[in-house]
Amino acid sequence: MSLRAEIGLRMGELGLEARLSAESGEVVGLLGPNAAGKTTLLRALAGLTPLDRGRVVLDGELLEDAAAGTRVPPDRRRIGIVFQDYRLFPHLSALDNVAFGLRARGMSRRESRDRAVEWLTRFGLADQAHVRPRALSGGQAQRVGLARALVIEPRLLLLDEPLAALDAGARVELRRELRRHLSTFAGTCLLVTHDPLEAMTLAEQLVVLEDGRLTQSGTPDQVRAHPRSRYVAELVGLNLFRGTATDGVVVLANGSELVLADHDVGSPEVFAVIHPRAVALYRARPEGSPRNVWPGTAEGLEVLGDRVRVRIEGPVPLVAEVTPAAVAALRLDDGGPVWASVKATEVVAYPA
């Protein structure tokens, strides 16, 4: 089983141009900021939004070809979709919601209900079979939605932020359950999420969509190590810069410089990343001869567990990660001028 898709369409202000490739048994995480086109991409694959350009091929079957005028309707595509807001039929029981897709494909009432019971049991909802959606908790409703998508044995499973509407406790439990079900799913899965933890733990491959364009793809480790946009860098918690490298020095667009320990980065145009924990902060310019020292202003604090992230504005804008003790000693909660220092060995550069 495999997915090959070239998507080209326009909806209002959004112009979507994306090329996707995924293999059977693979979970692909689709990340991106709000209004990037993630849900539109899923709707195009499901056949709910027609293509202006491109084609969709699933397991060798042509589902849509805009140039040829070929388009398989949504109800004839072996695609399951789970929405963030569940979208269960309010007048049907959990059992009949799960059985609905099978009945729509011509299966008998008895057989479709028997299959629905099997899937409700897998999700621990056998005792909720005759309950209507309004009486279900958020976690239970999303499990019904997942069962409804999986009962038809789809070749492609589309998950549109399936855990976003749940509280923290339910999200952790359902993430664990979802991982278990996806590990045995034979088809291809495309998971839309804003949560980097969700993406890193559930997906083997990540695809980043920004402003209707795919800006980066790779394994979670590859994306985390080499972000290629500010959105991705913020997502994985790194400082990202782009500039021109010459003799171990990266010159940014504003003329500021980052000194590297490695003089051979393989390309004059580079990205450079600095981990927030590698940034040391001082109230006065540090003594000695550190390679990278920049003035700035402490503009904001964010507590993350036993660490505090400090946003520094200046010629080289940075986020530093320090201890609460350092915050107190430097009185960083007062804001004001600071100096940031980074060792050359902590600046990692790679071709842009």
Describe this structure in words.
By secondary structure, the chain is of the alpha+beta class. The protein has two domains: 229 residues, 3-Layer(aba) Sandwich (Rossmann fold); 108 residues, OB fold (Dihydrolipoamide Acetyltransferase, E2P) (Beta Barrel), CATH 2.40.50. 26% of the residues lie in helices and 36% in strands. α3 packs across α4. The protein is elongated. It starts with a strand and ends with a strand.
Topology (elements, then pairings):
Layout: E1 2-11, E2 14-23, E3 27-31, H1 38-46, E4 53-58, E5 61-65, E6 70-71, E7 79-82, H2 94-104, H3 109-122, H4 138-150, E8 156-160, H5 168-183, E9 188-192, H6 196-202, E10 205-210, E11 213-218, H7 220-225, H8 230-236, E12 239-246, E13 249-252, E14 257-259, E15 269-274, E16 280-282, E17 292-304, E18 307-313, E19 318-322, H9 324-330, E20 336-342, E21 347-351
Parallel strand pairs: 3-9, 3-10, 7-8, 8-9
Antiparallel strand pairs: 1-2, 1-4, 4-5, 5-6, 10-11, 12-13, 12-15, 13-14, 15-21, 16-20, 17-18, 17-20, 18-19
Count of distinct strands: 21
Radius of gyration: 25 Å
Could you give the order of strands across the largest sheet?
7-8-9-3-10-11
Major beta sheet summary: 6 strands, mixed
Looking at the structure, the CATH topology of the largest domain is Rossmann fold
Low-confidence parts: none
The CATH architecture of the largest domain would be 3-Layer(aba) Sandwich
Count of helical stretches: 9
Helical residues, percent: 25-40%
Mean pLDDT: 92
Shape type? elongated
The structural domain count equals 2
Question: SSE string, helix = H, strand = E?
Answer: EEEHEEEEHHHEHEHEEHHEEEEEEEEHEE
Q: How far apart, in Å, are the first and last alpha carbons?
A: 33 Å
The CATH C-level name of the largest domain is Alpha Beta
Structural class, by secondary structure, is: alpha+beta
